[in-house]
């Protein structure tokens, strides 16, 4: 009888040790990568200047239209220009709205293309936040407008008027207030405005397209194809692209589709990714050239000929009594703030993202309130929505101005409550103790940076030792040496880093070794 053999069971391979650390949660409004931060700051700098000009143009239009010179304002605004044979005998106001704003939307198209291929929108997970914020920030104002007008018996035609955000005007408000937002909040506002512009473009294209002229539309499409082929062939001469762009715009205008769509389409065709040896992509280069024209000329001129409405006591009272105008005001002030903030909070909630520890949800709500400034595109949509009813169009324009003003004041109060915190964050972001030209927050962990900081503090320590030895060796001058030492105890032998306002950066002259090297 064979001996009983014990059953041999295979031994399971040991499981690799698992880390006890939970996976890092994605941050909401996290610090930007350095190249993205540089691009955002450059873009917002140009938009801020343009926003100030926009604010000046709007005030000038209001003054001009509410003085004895109001007749001259209407004469200039309604003066016809252009060849009638080509269907382009337009008033000055229409040239500003359909022609100059095409330049604005061209820049918006480039911004959108860059965000999609190289910016915040290239990563679907990162793009979810600004997309949902912008989408909810357009749905909520539209619902507020519809609710007010359904209950009040008004026209629902203007539902899209309070859905837009004017980034330039918002930045002008920040400039007037002297408030500097941390780069993460500024980038969120810029990306929100880019996505907002995209949805506004879709609204204009879908809901405000008249009877189509298919021959002109086909010609515009053929022109866009030729424009794309020339770009891919490397043809960059302005003398080729500018005349072609004008032809495309004219055909688009005569097709029944709003002419600004031509600007967006051409902007989206530009390449916004860099190739080897390129410092800037063609899209970035053209945007750098055209943005000053858009922000400094096109948009202010549009404001000059669109914002001139009557602001008499009766007209202002009508803003809060007529359902159409009240819907616009409440949509901008309440709908925008609730929509943008709610969309961001819900997205963070369902994606389990955590807010940047340097910021609070109150900061995001303040930016959401700032998004209620809906000037340029809101005025344009108001003109399209109530075309043919001049009186109601002017009332809606007054409502846009009133709502934007209330939103600006509301946001200003919220931002001022946190201004010291913002100043501290901006100072820390721009601090460059080693004078390398790169903010220190982007160099932590780099051995070269820490060696430079060590050398700086070693020189400082040597200076303090020299002062101590001088004080010890000269009893008669101990008092004087002590005064020198006291005065130099908090001086840095380096040139101190400067903040944006020219003041000495906090911590740049500390004698406790600063941050650990």
From TrEMBL:
The chain crosses the membrane at residues 52-73, 93-112, 124-147, 159-181, 214-231, 295-316, 328-348, 360-386, 398-415. Residues 1-23, 467-517 are annotated as: Disordered. It is found in: Cell inner membrane; Cell membrane. It comes from the Bacteria. InterPro entries: Na/H_antiporter_dom_sf (IPR023171), NhaA (IPR004670). It is a multi-pass membrane protein. The keyword Oxidoreductase does not apply. Its main location: membrane. HAMAP family: NhaA. Na(+)/H(+) antiporter that extrudes sodium in exchange for external protons. This is Na(+)/H(+) antiporter NhaA.
